[in-house]
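User: quick one, sequence for these tokens?
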């Protein structure tokens, strides 16, 4: 057995101490490098791996709309974690800090967490303004602002990039973002001009130019620049790409011809598209607009046959749903065959869940059923003899897209002057509004607005007609005059004088002169509240309570569906005074409070009273309790913004 050899410890000479010191410094340097490789190197590696994975995914499926896959997300989150560790462990190493901050921002940008990316880019600019990553960070920050929807901040940031950068790729991408920003802010013409500016830039891939041309064509179509849209749609770069983009551009170009009323040319272009071999998988998309063009070109029989062919070839699909809907519209409006139209609408609704076609078809089928019910009842009622005609006009306008039939019903109401109907003024205003908004006939609309002014002066409808005609306001409605009286009463009330000799008589004058106005309801409420308040503090308690009770009862009965009438009813019920049952008189059908509407009576407009005073606060409790008034009666201007389904 060999004995272990024990050697004596060497003395710590100065030379040996120097050697050990050098080794320690080297070890520390190597340790620092290990920390770097375990942190920032791995952060960069994870980020690059995520980008390669995304590039491969998009190459396999260019139509992929997923921002980041789960695997890519893991890599990006690892990059953020490692970069954050660099910031934590190497705060004394400025060569790592800005790179780590920038990489975190880039990772958040790829993840779609734009607010966090912006924060990191801002930190980089604040703490390391001279870092080499600053130019790219500034560009990506502008992009992140745009992608985050912060358009008011994104726009100047992107414009600065366009004006200052020497990098053509950055400039082009910034212009593209600006174009998309303008489109998002409903400025299609400004967006179109930016796309066309982008097309002037050189050295862009053909695929990119094709997409820019298509967006420009779509925007030009939106602003009704038909020839400009066709020019972009026929760009050669688009023709070099595979379907469906070239076909979409060709269909848009044909639609421009339709809008130009060149129905024959549109038909020829669409027939030519059907003959192209590569378009065969998309035949229904071509056949549907072709049938529409044929119908407009006077070839209704061919159009019907084509729609039926689409429905047969593509059953239970969005194409068959649209074909049946268009067939229904044709038979309803052109052929005036409501029975056949309803069959096609029902067929469209049964095709499946393909909005908006199936939804529209279902609504029109229900509207035709409602139409049949209204026609069965030809008697009307004593209170609203024109109820049925007005409801039928609404159905034709809102649900059945048949303007001429709607106008015919409205004309019938206006012309029947032997019967004093509350629908007369509404019908007169409605037909003027239809000509202005739907038929784009300003001259005809103004003549009909003038009819309203001459035949229904002093009404809200006359007041709005004056505005629509662009005339200086001269119409003073009962509501306007009542409001002036009400303000005079308010002044007396707050002047501190005896309310029983000043304010209350003034409020009563409002009620007496204009009993069916907003101001009258408020005035009566003030009377009731003043008496109620006096009863709790004054000497004539019994007398004041009786007066308050009488005022509340009058308010409840005159304005039952207003917030003030509701308040009066609640006060009376709390005092044990129950509302009497409604009288059974000849009235309009229960589904239309509009049948007894008086255009001079704000109670019939469905709006709250808080416009004029302190009691209505616009809250839910201020809505008209129990009112069945449709929302579109809030003002004459909104008379046609609702629909028959409100009833």
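Assistant:
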């Amino acid at each position: 057995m060999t004995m272990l050899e024990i050697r004596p410890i060497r003395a710590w000479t100065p030379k040996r101490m120097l050697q050990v010191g050098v080794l320690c410094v080297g070890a520390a340097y190597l340790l620092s490098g290990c920390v770097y490789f375990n942190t920032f190197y791995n952060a960069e590696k994870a980020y690059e791996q995520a980008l390669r994975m995304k590039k491969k995914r998009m190459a396999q499926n260019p139509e992929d709309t997923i921002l980041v896959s789960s695997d890519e997300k893991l890599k990006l989150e690892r990059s953020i974690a490692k970069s954050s560790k660099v910031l934590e462990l190497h705060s004394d190493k400025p060569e790592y800090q800005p790179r780590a901050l920038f990489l975190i921002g880039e990772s958040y940008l790829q993840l779609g967490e734009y607010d966090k990316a912006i924060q990191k880019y801002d930190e980089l600019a604040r703490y390391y303004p001279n870092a080499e990553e600053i130019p790219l960070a500034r560009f990506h920050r502008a992009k992140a602002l745009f992608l985050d929807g912060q358009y008011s901040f994104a726009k100047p940031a992107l414009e600065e990039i366009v004006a200052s950068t020497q990098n053509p790729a950055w400039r082009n991408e910034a212009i593209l973002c600006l174009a998309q920003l303008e489109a998002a802010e409903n400025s299609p013409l400004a967006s179109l001009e930016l796309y066309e500016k982008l097309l002037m830039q050189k050295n862009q891939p053909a695929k990119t130019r094709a997409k820019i041309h298509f967006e420009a064509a779509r925007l030009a179509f939106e602003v009704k620049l038909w020839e400009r849209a066709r020019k972009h749609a026929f760009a050669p770069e688009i023709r070099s790409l595979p379907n469906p983009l070239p076909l979409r551009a060709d269909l848009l170009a044909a639609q421009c011809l339709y809008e130009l009323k060149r129905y024959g040319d549109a038909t020829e272009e669409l027939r030519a598209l059907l003959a192209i071999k590569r378009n065969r998988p998309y035949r229904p998309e071509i056949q549907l607009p072709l049938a529409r063009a044929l119908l407009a070109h006077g070839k209704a029989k061919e159009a019907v046959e084509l729609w039926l062919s689409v429905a047969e070839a593509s059953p239970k699909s969005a194409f068959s749903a649209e074909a049946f809907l268009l067939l229904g519209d044709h038979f309803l409006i052109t052929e005036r065959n409501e029975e056949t139209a309803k069959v096609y609408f029902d067929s469209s609704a049964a095709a499946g869940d393909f909005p908006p076609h199936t939804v529209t078809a279902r609504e029109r089928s229900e509207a035709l059923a409602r139409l049949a019910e209204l026609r069965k009842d030809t008697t009307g009622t004593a209170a609203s003899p024109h109820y049925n005609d007005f409801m039928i006009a609404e159905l034709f306008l809102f649900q059945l897209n048949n303007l001429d039939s709607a106008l015919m019903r409205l004309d019938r109401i206006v012309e029947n002057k032997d019967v004093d109907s509350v629908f007369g003024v509404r019908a007169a205003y409605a037909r003027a509004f239809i000509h202005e908004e739907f038929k784009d006939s300003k001259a005809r609309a103004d003549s009909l607005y003038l009819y309203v002014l001459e035949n229904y002066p002093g009404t809200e409808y006359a007041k709005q007609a004056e505005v629509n005609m662009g005339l200086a306001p001269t119409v003073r409605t009962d509501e306007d005059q009542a409001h002036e009286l009400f303000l005079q009463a308010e002044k007396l009330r707050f002047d501190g004088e005896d309310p029983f000799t000043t304010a209350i008589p003034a409020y009563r004058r409002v009620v007496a002169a204009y009993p069916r106005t907003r101001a009258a309801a408020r005035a009566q409420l003030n009377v009731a509240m003043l008496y109620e308040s006096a009863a709790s503090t004054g000497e004539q308690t019994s007398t004041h309570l009786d007066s308050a009770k009488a005022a509340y009862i009058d308010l409840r009965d005159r304005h039952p569906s207003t917030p003030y009438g509701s308040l009066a009813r609640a006060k009376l019920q709390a005092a044990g005074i129950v509302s009497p049952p409604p009288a059974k008189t000849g009235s309009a059908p229960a589904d239309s409070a509009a049948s007894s509407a008086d255009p001079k009576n704000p109670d019939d407009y469905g709006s709250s009273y808080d416009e004029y005073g302190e009691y209505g606060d616009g809250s839910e409790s201020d809505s008209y309790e129990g009112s069945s008034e449709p929302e579109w009666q809030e003002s004459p201007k909104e008379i046609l913004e609702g629909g028959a389904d409100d009833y």
